[in-house]
Write a structure and sequence with these properties.
It contains twelve helices and 20 strands. The protein is α+β, with helices and mostly antiparallel strands. The protein folds into two domains: about 5-70 and about 95-180 and about 270-350, FAD/NAD(P)-binding domain (3-Layer(bba) Sandwich), CATH 3.50.50.60; about 180-270 and about 355-385, 2-Layer Sandwich (D-Amino Acid Oxidase, Chain A, domain 2). The radius of gyration is 21 Å and the shape is globular. The protein starts with a strand and ends with a helix. The site of P-hydroxybenzoic acid has 9 residues, from loops.
Length: about 400
């Protein structure tokens, strides 16, 4: 096969880029290891920045998000039995976020690729990247007994944290920065009415909790758990009981509970790989960086990479201008690191750290007290939560 841009990975990053480039007449081939059903079975976060939403509309993928997504102008932080509200609208001068599940968004992207007859190949094995520093890179993969070669001009590594693209960069070029947190999030999806019309982030001595939602009839809840716990350790009843204990009584009292339709544990990790370009390979999304989910930055950080990469590719193919491609790594990383900082800060603010000394706990309490005593601090949190400018 021959194409201009070979994209590895059919998560939101790869799908969005292939859709945007195809709309500009730039030919792409997308290679995804898993089946479409497998990709759509993964439950992930669901808070979108407006910059991301605009990019989805530009990709002709925003209709259902605009119909079914909910605008959220604030969220709550529950602590010490009280609920403090973060008014995003007030503190950003009119900005907000859209609550729309990543699973739904990925489905919309797959449907858009299908409508355009985009080349999306599922079930590829043993993907390998070759000759990345030459002007004729290529990708190989196995399809059953066959070995297939895709010749291209650029390779996009959008294959997530466990993909092959990042490890294809030589070790003496790649630098990795990482922090692993000593806990995970146990998440439950249930067909119940969300306990609150806005998200509730809860800080509690027993651990963090989050009340989120996918729609008015589908709730998503999380509790912080030790890394040694497994899903089997948590019956639905135990989950609801522990969630309620970490919330103010008035919230716990009105919580609708029901059977879980999905239950999983995700470890929390901060990770950045630099550079995000090696020769004609460009990394994007989780392939290059991971955040703990606390600040809802993961998907939005992926989207900002795609925005930079898309504009740079269009400049290259339409105007023979390579300035965007040359600046990609530096520009993307500058925003990535700000999302890292915010996610790290919000994680530290709200979780119970098993090894915290009493001094750390006092500072954590003071951080929260300062936040809700200062319009400047609230504005700083708000501008990060709705997304910094591209
Ligand atoms: N070959 C082909 N595809 C691969 C390979 C491989 N060797 N390894 C992984 N993949 C696929 C995965 O199956 C997955 O579908 O790449 C895709 C990567 O998708 P994501 O992990 O969803 O990463 P990305 O598209 O960057 O999405 C951004 O934001 O909120 C966060 O983690 C959340 O997934 C989300 C991410
Ligand atoms: C979610 O709904 O899954 C979600 C929302 C906000 C977060 C993290 C996860 O910060």
């Amino acid at each position: 096969m021959k194409t201009k841009v070979c994209i590895i990975g059919g998560g939101p990053s790869g799908l969005l880029l292939s859709q945007l480039l195809d709309l500009k007449g730039i030919d792409t081939v997308l290679l995804e290891k898993r089946t479409r059903d497998y990709v759509l079975g993964r439950i992930r976060a669901g808070v979108l920045e407006h910059g991301f939403a605009n990019l989805l509309r530009e990709a002709q993928c925003g209709d259902r998000m605009d119909r079914e997504g909910e605008i959220h102008e604030g969220f709550f932080i529950a602590h010490d039995g009280v609920m403090d509200r973060m008014d995003l609208d007030l503190h950003t001068g009119g900005d907000s976020v859209i609550v729309y599940g990543q699973t739904e968004l990925t489905r919309d992207l797959y449907e858009a690729r299908e409508r355009m007859n985009g080349t999306v190949i599922h079930g590829v094995d043993d993907v390998q990247l070759h000759e990345l520093t030459s002007d004729a890179p290529f990708v190989t993969y196995r399809d059953g007994e066959d070995s297939v070669r895709v010749d291209c001009e650029y390779v996009i590594g959008a294959d997530g944290f466990h993909g092959v693209s990042r490890p294809s960069i030589p070790a003496d070029v790649l630098r990795e920065y990482e922090r692993v947190y000593p806990f995970g999030w146990l998440g439950v999806l249930s067909e119940t009415k969300p306990v609150s019309p806005e998200l509730i982030y809860a800080k509690h001595e027993r651990g963090f909790a989050l009340c989120s939602m996918r729609s008015q009839v589908l709730s998503r809840y999380y509790i912080q758990v030790p890394l040694t716990d497994s899903v089997d350790d948590w019956s639905d009843d135990m989950f609801w009981e522990e969630l309620k204990r970490r919330l103010p009584a008035e919230v716990a009292d009105r919580m609708q509970t029901g059977p879980s339709i999905e239950k999983s544990i995700a470890p929390l990790r901060s990770f950045v790989a630099e550079p995000m370009r090696y020769g004609n390979l460009f990394l994007a999304g989780d392939a290059a960086h991971i955040v703990p989910p606390t600040g809802a930055r993961g998907l939005n950080s992926a989207a900002s990479d795609i925005q930079y990469l898309y504009r740079a590719m269009v400049d290259h193919y339409e105007n023979s201008d390579d300035a965007g491609l040359d600046a990609y790594s530096e520009k993307a990383l500058a925003r990535v690191w700000k999302a890292q900082r915010f996610s790290w800060w919000m994680t530290n603010l709200l979780h119970a750290f098993p090894d915290a000394i009493s001094y750390d706990q006092k500072l954590q309490e003071t951080d929260l007290a300062y936040l809700f005593s200062s319009d400047n601090a609230l504005a700083s949190m708000a501008e990060n939560y709705v997304g910094l400018p591209y």
